[in-house]
Amino acid sequence: MKILIAVDGSQFSDAAVDEVARRPWPEGSELDIVSVYEPPALPITENFVLPQTYYEEMEKASQEQARDAINKAIERLRAAQSNLRINSEIARGYPADVILDRANRWGADLIVVGSHGYSGLKRFLLGSVSQNVSSHAKCSVEIVRAKDTTES
């Protein structure tokens, strides 16, 4: 079985990793962990030019965050699952597009993603990677929900 799991370092992707880690998988199953960072965007709409180092520093920070998310997931999965072959990749792009493309190219049987559980205006403004993936994937998709512990 080929399982693709998308991680971003949030408690929601941690829940998805925990869900994969706790299950028994068939012998010879493969796990592909992907962490996607988006291209840096200007936080303003005015004609203002930021120094080139701004983009380089943002890109570097995003890559480090993605690498940390993957390393954390690999550590958790290796501790719980010794029979899985694990591959990983850090990718630049728009998360849903990259996840779907990678799943299609690899021939994934299952995509596992965490969900932030946004609704209403927040979902409209921020979008929903999990909804986009589940709507367009050519394989099964599992959306793992976790309680948001950052809100009171």
Overview of the molecule:
With 152 residues, the chain is α/β, with parallel strands linked by helices. 45% of the residues lie in helices and 22% in strands. It has five helices and five strands; from the N terminus they run E-H-E-H-E-H-E-H-H-E. It has helices spanning 11-22, 52-80, 95-106, 120-126, 129-136; strands at 2-6, 30-37, 85-92, 110-115, 140-145. Helix 3 (95-106) runs parallel beside helix 5 (129-136). The radius of gyration is 16 Å and the shape is globular. The model is unreliable at 121-126 (pLDDT under 50).
How is this fold's topology laid out?
Layout: E1 2-6, H1 11-22, E2 30-37, H2 52-80, E3 85-92, H3 95-106, E4 110-115, H4 120-126, H5 129-136, E5 140-145
Parallel strand pairs: 1-2, 1-4, 2-3, 4-5
Helix pairs in contact: 1-2, 3-5
How would you briefly describe this protein structure?
The protein is of the alpha/beta class. The chain is built from five helices and five strands. Helix 1 (11-22) packs parallel to helix 2 (52-80).
